[in-house]
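Chain A, query sequence.
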Amino acid sequence: MGLFDYSPYPISVLAPGCKVVDTEKGVGIVNAGGTGAAIFTAGLLQKTILDAATGYMSHPSVVSGPYTLTSYDAQSGTASFAINPYYKGNEDGEKPTIETIVYRTVANDEAIDLLLSGRVDFVGINVPVLNAYLQEHPDAADKVKEAFVIPNSEDVIAIPVRKGEPEFLDAINAALAELREEGTLKEISEKYLGGDYTNSAYSN
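Chain A, predicted structure.
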């Protein structure tokens, strides 16, 4: 989703009437005119960023990436993007070629069904979820193909414990370490997820 980043965040849009200054205490935001009651408030940001009709979060007017957001429907979770005409290309001079992209949030099983029916062109999905789907629907194996896998990307899953109970946390970690060492975690992962996903990039 890096292609859809809509930075920068211009102060003229997010905080009209304000300017950034360098003070003795660090960087500050003050009234551009230098006098009067402070314009830069939570209420101002609520309007310029979060307002459903005009807020920068859903209606960015200044972008620097290859695509610019053209519409967003919060109810359906659908966003439409078009090529940013001011984008000069990446470090290799490459520019996007797909004129319009429509991004929609759906459940994993629905995403693959939409792909197979031709209603969408591609889906972003976890590899274990795709493997599980193909196990349940082997006839789809020749119709679905991994286009690419983002390296070192994974969902971070945590087991929360109450503060002040380090012995409980140590017991959980010890049990997981034992299961990993004896190969049980790998067996469970391969059986239910279609591959070994027990080695975390965050544990190195």
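The longest strand covers residues 67-73. The mean pLDDT is 80.
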